Amino acid sequence: MKKRFLSIILTVGVMAMAVTGCGGNSSSADKGNGDGTSAAGNSELTGTITLAGSTSMEKLCEAMSESFMSEYPGITVTAEYTGSGAGLESLAAGSVDIGNASRHLKDDETAGGAVENVVAIDGIAVITNKENKVKDISKEDLAKVYSGDIDNWSKLEGKDEAIVVIGREAGSGTRDGFEELLDVKDKCKYAQELDSTGAVLAKVASTPGAIGYVSLDVVDDSVSALTVDGAEASEENILSGSYILSRPFVMATKGEIDKQSDLVKTWFDYVKSDAGKDVISKVGLIIPE
Predict the structure, then answer these.
(1) Which residues contact 189 (CB under 8 A, 6 or more apart)?
(2) Which of helix, strand or coil describes residue 169?
(3) Helix (H, G, I), strand (E, B) or coil at 268
(4) Inter-residue contact 103 to 213 (CB < 8 Å)
(5) Residue 269: CA count within 13 A, CB half-sphere
């Protein structure tokens, strides 16, 4: 009888230990450490991170997302390229985690709770059709071209050909940055306003006499890139200040990063890591100092 009683006690004890052990196996992604990181590493996190905004940031976002998801296979990153203004509106509405903007945030956007997180620096390249013989333009003459005061390439020592001014649509971060840097806000006389970086590149490439502006990282041999005041659009010249047309790539959050979900904090940790910096460099952008 005593042996049977002892056996029952031992069996109950073993079962209790087993139950306790099972209870301790809950995912660290669920428990966390209270500081936004998981006890066994963020690789256990699962879920989706949503981004929307600047079309100029598509190359960066696609490369960063691919690299990030290979490191964190449980996390899916989705991005829509709707323009900087639209992306920040989506952020304000709470429909995305991150609003991408290829410009600094405006006062009304920060007043609404958006926080500017600069992840890279981009140069804005001034491009022309390949047949154009003009290779350099001054900042002042570039402003006059876009305001309509200079309307023929012959006035810039080019051939007698009308200048076809191509730009981005209202709300584009590239357009906002370009116009602010040249002080031509609301003064530009566009022949066409296009809704993506790729569209501007293609239009300038196919249109005699055309001039446009695009993100530096997308420039290819289908167009010519002008120097501005003798300075080439390059990382060295942008960092030194000799090339004036540059702007930030911003991944805005609603509130500071440390107030975001574990998923979003993990994303920004990765962007700032050596692996993230490598992605930034490989797509032709500049790592902010």
Answers:
(1) 146, 147, 148, 165
(2) coil
(3) helix
(4) no
(5) 15
Predicted TM-score of the model (pTM): 0.71
User: Domain ranges in the chain?
Assistant: 42-120+249-282, 122-247
Number of H helices, E strands in the chain: 11, 12
Strand, helix or coil for residue 29: helix
**Phi, psi (rounded to 5 degrees) for 255:** 95, 170
One pLDDT digit (tens) per residue for the chain, 289 residues: 434 433 433 343 433 333 333 333 323 333 333 333 332 345 689 999 999 999 989 999 999 999 999 999 999 999 999 999 999 999 999 999 999 999 999 999 999 999 999 999 999 999 999 999 999 999 999 999 999 999 999 999 999 999 999 999 998 989 999 998 999 999 999 999 999 999 999 999 999 999 999 988 899 999 999 999 999 999 899 988 899 999 999 999 999 999 999 999 999 999 999 999 999 999 989 998 7
In this structure, whether the domain defined by 42-120+249-282 belongs to CATH 3.30.428.10 is answered with no
- 42-120+249-282 matches 122-247 in fold: yes
- Residue ranges of the alpha helices (H) in 113-169? 139-147
- Which residue type is seen at 11? T
CATH C-level class of 122-247: alpha beta
* Residue 28 CB neighbours (<10 A): 17
Q: Can you list the alpha helix ranges (DSSP code H) found in 183-260?
A: 197-206, 235-240
What count of other Cβ atoms lies within 10 Å of the Cβ of residue 30? 10
